[in-house]
Recover the amino acids of this structure.
């Protein structure tokens, strides 16, 4: 149970602006024989909640950015793709800023969250699938 909490914390923090990845721990836990579905579920939920934190940060940082005369980059992407952009929130280095920008530019929070969770679940699902091919 403790190892799953560690995976949750790792996945949550990896989805914030901290520069590290949750995939190595996810794969290590699969290699150690931890229940794959539990790993998938815990990593997806943790990473999604971390991503949701970025979304909320972006939404409520509007005043901060506007006072400084700055806005997050990605305005054109958000205007063009809207909530769909959250599907790519799992992509290293760009996923976190995408969610902050999506929050800042007020994409629909429920739809954005659904696309975010779907993208993150797809990533962990694919990792699980390809890992299972090696066993």
């Amino acid at each position: 149970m403790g190892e799953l909490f560690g995976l949750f914390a790792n996945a949550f923090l990896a989805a914030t602006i901290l520069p590290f990845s949750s995939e190595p721990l996810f794969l290590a836990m699969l290699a150690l024989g931890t229940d794959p579905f539990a790993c998938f579920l815990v990593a997806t939920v943790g990473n999604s909640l971390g991503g949701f934190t970025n979304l909320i940060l972006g939404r409520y940082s509007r005043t901060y950015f506007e006072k400084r005369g700055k806005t997050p980059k990605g305005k054109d992407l958000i205007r063009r793709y809207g909530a769909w952009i959250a599907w790519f929130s799992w992509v290293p280095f760009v996923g976190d800023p995408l969610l902050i920008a999506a929050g800042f530019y007020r994409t629909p929070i429920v739809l954005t969250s659904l696309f975010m969770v779907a993208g993150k679940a797809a990533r962990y699902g694919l990792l699980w699938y390809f890992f299972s091919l090696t066993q």
Q: What stands out?
A: Residues 36-60 form the longest helix (25 residues).
